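Quick illustration for those who missed Monday's session on complexes.
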Amino acid sequence: MKRSVSMLILALIMGVILVADIMVFIALGVGHPVPWVLLALLVLVPVLHNRMESGRFVTWKPEYSVGIDLIDDDHKKLLSLINNLQAAVHYHTGYAFEKKALDELVDYTRFHFEREEALMKEHDYPDYELHCAEHREMIGKVEEFVAGYQTKGHDVFESMAAYLKDWLITHINGTDQEVGAYIRGRTGG
Ligand SMILES: [Fe+2]
Ligand SMILES: [Fe+2]
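Prediction with fe (ii) ion bound:
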């Protein structure tokens, strides 16, 4: 949902609760629990809304670690670039800012993939080809999204940010974890 629409809905809900609360206070008086429950709702609704908003962004968790500092640092950087893209898209900053955030993310992703692939090669990782195919598939999907902007406009960025967030978290927690375990097993790390 677009931020402007979600803010409008929030304002409407708060307005309805506020009016209802005033009326219930007048009708039932301060000794009745219902107006106090409504008052508590009035405080809770924006807090819950803020929580939902912040859920759009990703934060690094220790369980994301693959046990190799260089790769973990890249993944942290990628998550921060995803958040930049998510913010640019969510706040409708316009094509130039959205494209800039996307380019930074894609450039760093390519750089990271090259580094990870070189590391796998160096250690004769047995699933090297399969892993690289996942990387290529992701880059191909992003190129598709970028091409789609010409016909579908801003919504493409929204779908792309969601796709990239899901893909990276899943990839880091699955395929990259396997690489980390393999290399650590070989190097005794
Ligand atoms: Fe990877
Ligand atoms: Fe990775």
